Amino acid sequence: MKRYGIRVALALTLAVPACGGSASTGSGADGPGGNATPSASPSPTPTLPPVAADKKLVKQALVTPADLGKPWVEPKKVNQAKAAKGELCPGHKNSAARNKPRADQRRQMTKGSKPGAAIVSVAVRTYALGTEAAWRDAFAAAAKGCKSWTAAEKTFVTLEVVTPPTVAGADEVLAHVERIYADKTKKTLYYVRHWVEARTGRVVTAFEHAFVQPKSDPTGADLTATVALVETQVAKVRTTFGL
Hints:
Distance between the termini: 24 Å
Helix content: 10-25%
Strand content: 25-35%
């Protein structure tokens, strides 16, 4: 997912088939006069839909400004922080590049059109069955390689993996918080980026929320507003995919 910022280029950035029952006999032995119990039918093995079907569904599942409500809008263009494609930080791949999805649809929106407005960059991604561990590993590896870095805009960024918030409708959640500072002393916090990945079955919502932290939350640690936005996307994923 592309990275977006506010100021200084800110304006912003899965089943193991059940085993079939074995045949068992009743009180009589098999053969004449026996009462053999027929074996149970094995559960059908889950199958994936065609990739084309996944691509169609992720488009339908992606939230729109109307889903988020006013004042959210989708501008034709948002200022983009300079970053190489597929990187979380310089020289290190992001989670999607490490664990490539079957289908991936993205959208960027801003909370109004004024300069410095908060931005969300959201993606809906599908994966193959049984790849939860690969998803978790990709998230962890990306974060591990990006504890801190100097951005192309000469700002200084730190990344903290945080306790995953509860997201209604999600089976599993991963999260980190990025803080963008004016200089190496980290005395002036420009803005924060909340990154939340919420898995629902084999569908993952990847949600980045970049905003200027309010005075009531000077370190940008409160994920409440971000979670509310993520829950709207997860609900649409569940409805669209019939989960």
